Amino acid sequence: MLRCRLKIFLYVSVFALAYGGVAFAQKTSSGNPYIFNTSTSTAPLELTVEDAVDFRNQILDLFGIPRDTPITITDFMVGNTKDIKLPQTGIPKIDMGPLQNLKLVVNETNLSPGRQVQAVIVSFSTNLGESTITWYHNGKRVLSGKGAVLYTFTLGADGASDSLRAAVTTDTGAYKEVSKTLRPAQIHFTWFTNTYTPEWYRGKALPAPGTEITIVAIPDFRLGKTRLDPSNLIYEWSLNDSSRENDPRVSGTGKNSFVLKLSTVVSASYKVGVRVKDLGERIESEESINVESTMPLVGIYPVDPLYGLTTWLSGLNYSLPAGETITLQAEPYYVPRKDILNLTYSWGINDKNISGNTARDNRLFRLSSETGSRGVQRIRVSFENQNNVFERGSGETRVNVIGNNQIGE
Fold first, then answer.
1. What is the per-residue pLDDT across 235-246, written as a single tens digit (0 to 9) for each?
2. How far is Cα 177 from Cα 71, in angstroms, rounded to an integer?
């Protein structure tokens, strides 16, 4: 089963909502609050805890600063970064002059059209909270003020571009501009797995423990009205946030598919991500999909002497007139196709195991009722791969034996 989930960071332990805005207090194992501080006159970003951690770490990585540096996301939002101390030396950072390391960072790596994006300017060599900052979006002045380090906007349509420019004047008169161009793009996913379903089944085969799933990225990258050829794009895959960028078997130009071998652990889950960019790095976007395995199961269907397997009668209950016989057939779902002939089936009725069933590969079960009998019989079946104990599943149905005096009621 595939599900969308929030990213979970194990070191986030506590969060609180306060003062009518979003104010969080979390601690890592070292005891330092690294996400938000809880006292600021500037409203912090409206982000989830997980997204705030992501954004903070993205900024630190951009500057090459260790992630265990005691700095909060709010410090970035109010421009309070000049006097941050490096944890490995314990001394203030060397003053490189005002605005020498000024950068413009956006919080989103998924740049799909219409998505809300928050941009922030960061400097570790000046106090941006005391600087006058003017923002320009597609050449138009949209925001200006003292300490206006944050600008929120909505991305345009496919093929469009969003040009951002921030002009900074410090309290000492130093001036610098930074800019960035974002091009909205979409990445869709499709996937398929190597598990078995009956040929008449119209649903999708699901990944079971120990099987493989192939995930295909389908990017929609446009420059104006021109759609870029997906085979000429660069794909950088990741698994559970661990990059496979340097693995040429997985990542590279035109490598738009990722094959994942699932663990034999039941309900194991995985996060598969991909970052896609064009050769000129004009367009870049990132997306992820969550994968979770599901247990194989068995469907039980009646076999009609004339029509054969009556799949249209599938259900949990069947009726059988007293004195007659019903034949049931087990159909497995979500087993690796290569193992379908290696399965052994076991049948039971009313909590009693039935032995000596010599029908073809044990998939068939015949129930005969005596004349005058009546009542519900619970039929169950299970299967197991003799070569792999992790491949197993079960199913159940009920057969209601109808007495002669009940027919037609």
1. 999 999 899 988
2. 25
